[in-house]
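Project standup — Tuesday

K.O.: blocked on the structure for the chain from last sprint. Re-posting the sequence here as requested.
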Amino acid sequence: GRVPNVPITVDAQIPEGPHKTLRERVEIVTQKAECWKCHQHMNPLGFAFERYDDFGRYQLQEPLEHEENLIAMATKKLGANTYKTKPINSTGRLDGAGDPMLDGEVTDALDMIDRLAKSESVRQSIIRHAFRFFMGRNEMLSDSRTLIAADQAYLKSGGSFKAVVVSLLTSDSFIYRK
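H.V.: unblocked you, prediction finished:
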């Protein structure tokens, strides 16, 4: 689907909460009816990435960066203050794939990635998008042999994307493209 524009009546800001994690604060504000119609699809996927901070660093505890939670001031000029922390809840959910191997609860982003990496439908989707990129068009029924050959090249090579590209660029669909 598509993500619609935020309604003009919605103040799309995360509330302050000195004793709450980012997830807890987002959950509070996105439960409103006007927000939930979109966030019901986004939150379960996004929450699986809570183990990563704003810079992509892995973390088990979230610092509650508020003056009430300050434990120690930085001692060095470029040091960082120390704050109380709370454990991170990185559980999420994949829904709507129609594949029982994909849909369901995930413990975190790595669990989600592992599940996606093992999926036949995800693999075929990536190959289809590579086809579209290299051919400059959507696939047609007459391209089915090319897509099957690219998928087989991927499997035979043990998961090499290079094998997919070679298969696509040496196919009749590419050589005789218009």
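K.O.: great, moving the ticket to review. Helices lie at 22-30, 33-46, 109-117, 120-135, 144-156, 161-169, 172-175. The longest helix spans residues 120-135.
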